Structure prediction request, 557 residues.
Amino acid sequence: MTTLTEEPGVAGTAQDVVSVDGVSVTFRSKRASTSALGEVDLAVRPGEFVSIVGPSGCGKSTLLKVVAGLVAPTTGQVRLRGDVVAGPRPDIGFVFQRAALLDWRTAEGNILLQAEMRGMDAAAARRRCAELIETTGLSGFEKAMPHELSGGMQQRVSLCRALLHEPDVLLMDEPFGALDALTRERMNVELQRVCREAGVTVLLVTHSVPEAVYLGDRVVVMGPRPSRVVEELRVDLPPVRDYTAAMEDPEFHRVASRVRTLLGSPQGGD
Amino acid sequence: MTAVVSDRATVARQSRTAVRRSPAPARWWAAAWRPLTLVVAVLVVWWVVTAQGWLAPYVLPSPADTWAAAAENAAYLGQHTWVTTYETVIGFALAVVIGELVAVLMAYSPTTERTVYPIILVAQVVPKIAIAPLFVVWLGFGVAPKITVAVLMAFFPVVISGLAGLRSVDPEVIELTSTMGASRLKTFAKVMFPASLPQLLSGLKVAATLAVTGAVVGEFVGGNEGLGYVILQANGNIDTAMLFAALVVMSLLGIVLFLIIEIAERLLIGWHPSRRAATAATTVAGA
Ligand SMILES: Nc1ncnc2c1ncn2[C@@H]1O[C@H](COP(=O)(O)OP(=O)(O)OP(=O)(O)O)[C@@H](O)[C@H]1O
Ligand SMILES: [Mg+2]
Prediction:
């Protein structure tokens, strides 16, 4: 399966933006040691959108944190733009599984935290923030405190925060988990537009098979613990996809049902 | 979709203003009538007990006698109250600054924590009243030993609550800020410190009342100024009315300090669930 990522063509000479080599993570506590991640290899090319799916608890969040330098791998190493990741990396955008908002800041204040921490130009950051609020449908809630927002709205705030500094690598951990189906579809379309326009490289963890296939150039399926990459599937659709058309495309169905089979879903078999 | 969103926005804005709509005096009254009723009840019981002659005046002076003692000696009381207030406030402020500084050092450096924590604990368990005379020997009869005792009393809750606050920051929020590449100082100012405020402020409430106690204990031990001195004098003259007057003033001092921190809480951590619950309860009571 690794041959997939080494295919010549798309970016023959360009280096992989993210390369994960033999990474495994074991958490040790006084009571037990948990193997959170088996041995994982993964290579992501510039501008590629990779969806990661797998059963709950298989280490998807852990994998993203290793890539961001937030968790040190027990074995193996990660390279981001060629340099070995040795600590938290500021040259990325990260959307956490939980929104992780600061309770004392408004929605807007939480988004702008990114700008303040990075010392970005305040006026430009405000403009970008207003745009993001508009695209994510948060207009009217700029001044709302996190506890006044629904779970899905909090996630959208956290997404805006991760996009504010226009990172060219975006790591997203179930960013749309708390959204209703329709908002989720709309956010998928927006995310695709934003990412493709800016040529962002994305690693997206999701539990939704349609989301993984609609957004991904590639879908990485992970197995239950001790987790490994079970299979990588290329999605042969154009980079920018019309939602309804993609849903009806035979390629979409081929990949989606294969993913379902791999995940052991009863509707998966074909 | 946009229609729905802006609709919900209006609702949200309305409900936010609805909470604020009741006028300030009404809200103040809604919060204050219960404690005020209790104070009045205590005064009535006090008055009945003394008016009936159940207790001799030198055991329990009547409210009127206490008031008269306070009014007659207003200048004298005022002067000594000022001294105690001064010692308390300076002692409290020093305890807050030093305590928070130590808490920050301990939160960021495990070595400092292991070194300093036992010392702080020992300093805390030594009874302050027992070592207060020593400060008089060392620092004389002025305000210095009183401030020192106040600092010692107030310091511990500041350190403990400051440290607990800094430790309670959501680890995922810390991870998030580390992906933003900010300096430690900036992270502290924008994330760690604000997140620690709820715990720190509840520690400050305890510290403020302890600072009053500390100052008065210091005055008991030496010197001729402050409410502690007034109490000792009144006690020596079996002037129970004056003693009570000093006690009331002293309690008021503690309460005022406590209320100032309450207000600081309202301004600084209105976002915290503890304060939100308080607002909601007031709204219900006021409705
Ligand atoms: N900090 C930690 N300490 C100890 N064990 C951990 C820690 N973080 C995760 N784990 C364990 O590692 C395993 C993988 O966790 P992880 O959060 O990566 O799963 P996941 O694939 O993201 O699951 P989900 O889809 O439910 O979010 C789990 O068994 C979990 O119990
Ligand atoms: Mg997860």
Residues 1-18 of chain B have pLDDT under 50 and may be disordered. The interface with chain A takes residues 1-2, 5-6, 8-10, 12-13, 16, 170, 172-173, 175-182, 186-187, 190-191, 194-195, 269, 271-273, 276 of chain B (CB under 8 Å).
